[in-house]
Specification:
Helix content: 25-40%
Structural class: alpha/beta
Strand order of the largest sheet: 7-6-5-8-9
Strand content: 15-25%
Shape: globular
Largest sheet: 5 strands, mixed
Amino acid sequence: MTRHIGIDIGAETLKVAELTGTPGAWTLGRTVRIEHHKDPGQALLAVLEAWDWDTVDSAAATGRLGRQVALPRVPSRQALATGFRLLRGDVPATLVSIGSRGFSVLELRPGGTEVFRENGRCAQGTGNFLQQLVGRFGLTVDEAADLAAGVEQPAHLSGRCPVILKTDMTHLANKGEARDRILAGLLDAIAENVQGLVRPHICPPALALAGGVARSARIRAHFQTFAARHELAFLDSSAEDALFYEAWGAAVLGAEYGLGRPCLDALLEAPGETQVELLPALSQALGRVRRMPPPPPPAWDGPRNVILGFDIGSTGSKAVALDVETLAPLWDGYLGTDGAPVKAAQDLMKAFLDSPAGAHRVRGCGVTGSGREIVGSLLTICYGAGSVWVMNEIAAHATGALAQDPRVDTIFEIGGQDAKYIRLEGGRVVDAAMNEACSAGTGSFIEEQGRRFAGIRDVRQLGEAALASGACASLGQHCSIFMAEVMDEAVAAGVEQDRIIAGIYNSVIANYLNRVKGSRSCGRVVFCQGMPFASDALAAAVASQTGSEVIVPPNPGLMGALGIALLAQRQLPAEGLPVLDGAQFLEARVVEKDQFQCGSTKGCGGKGNACRIDRLTTQVAGERRVFSWGGACSLWDKGARRRKLPDLAPDPFRERRELTASLMAALEPRPGAPVVALTDEFQMQGLLPFFATFLHALGLEPRLGAAPGRAALKRGIEEAAVPFCAPMQQYHGLVAAMAETAPDYLFLPMIREMPHVNGEAHATICPITQGAPDVLRLNLGGGPRILSPVVDIGAGFFDAPSFLRACRELARDLGRAGA
């Protein structure tokens, strides 16, 4: 009996499978799957030593990091197809593989033809992405999958960029959404994103899943529903077997081609010459980092009046007890948010009450951070609006920094999920910016990437490794998703681990300087704050790239909590307020959280904006109470009641919809005339009035398509062949819906240039927007005829010669068609 080994070394896991027997009569043997923490070689040696490597007849490797071993390498696609056929037979099938760093669709068509498609350079839908997000809730992937399995009404999360999806999840958690609903929505969004690669009308009708993400019962159920909806047969095989398709395939191919094996001592491939650029060590810039010494412990001879400042962030929550008279911090606390902002705030309150500082008299509370709304709401229910002050992070961080040094004029704040730039003049904020979507300049990126390395226990040890490195690997200024690919390349090339770790810190600051700060100025006194700056490695990266002296406050993670406590002290008449019973907040519970549409016309122009309002039902001191916030005006903001929009303020979005409806209603009906469907979305924004009128004048009956919304976006995600941006996906869904109404024509112009503004030389729009008509023509197949004139509006708007020429050509084409 012969023995053959297949090895699949992925970005995060190592999988090894054993076969015995002969071709055509294989017997499946042992399997093992372990996380290799960026050191797959040592993990593999440990497995093979226990498997009697000396008696193995052949072996082959596959996977992203497969070149680290001195074995014949099999392309992942070939290994996947071979492994699937080994377990399922030579049947036509559509094989969807969802791995740690990518997902793909492999069509095994009759006759041996194979068609392969894979995701672009984006992590949405991958196991690595899923692991990051469920980690925000303090859960493993398996725990999250179990929690979400039976949820019937998941939270809505669209299949967009993974970083935006991460932000959406944080916002839902901060509004009190149940964890199981958020996680169910996450798994559904992942499934829908992957399903965008499947082409139900042309692919083989048997659908199978492979890869680690496919172990989730909810993912599998979602694909079963997808298969039934598109008349495909779902092959429900063992989730564990599906993990090893590539490893089984490598073993089969190694045996069939008679591939041998080296001795175990020579198994690890010596790294070739690295292609990764090396930069100076971070430690060289430490001389320009000045960390302020901590203040002496405050002296107090009895209970003091204090304000509690809470900074409830997306990944970490902080609190400070501020002496109302001396403005000295008397106590502070920090813990992880874990997707539960209310619990985090209550745990901080309990930590305060259980400490010696719990003897102080709490006169008021301030709340900032991404969880400020729900925590501030619950505190207001407990203690009344007069005892609680809620404010955004920009103001809080600026106030906290000024309390440390009144000369500060520039703040670099890097938190878990957000990164902020704040510019001050005379103690006032004059400019500010935040990261819009990318998390590559934030602390969560450092933590998420760092925990993948062997021997790294926590963020503190990660920073020590970065500073101890003699050089810094250049990982570039990419999106966090692309950065992970660059890191894998560095690992595969044999770059030392500490150099890659140093490169993470350097890359975070490069992304911050380019994507957050941008071209904005720096002053003379630059403060670096936020919990990630507790590591000198991050501060050294700032000093290295800016050449400036960097000042780090004594406890950089507490600046937001300190700042909001100071702001609350200024706004709340602490001496006149009752002493707050912290135990009342600990006992408060959020019983239910929902949304409703406001039906009032008090603050919205007399016609109603139908704003979505968040509502909490709470239980405080045995009594149920309702608290609400949200909307364009302050009608439902029961806590702050701060002025938003003035009463009867105009709503330009509603007015635009009303004007569009009145325009279409004013066009004289043309019974029996050919119907042309068009939309005012995407590239047609602002152009509908002209084209609807023009097409009507040519003798057609214009019909306006449905309004955009979640349904159109979801349909576009499912039907688009590639993962476009969300506007293009929504446009795709809208056009597909218009086609179903069976008009005679679909009006999808190819607009290359928009009107020129302020003398600009060019006004060319995105290539995806320009090519949208042709993409949709191919996807829609047969159906209504598509009118797609090429339009260059150019200078002069509707009287521009290029625009008039396009209109004449459209009229001529319709005349030839007999319209």
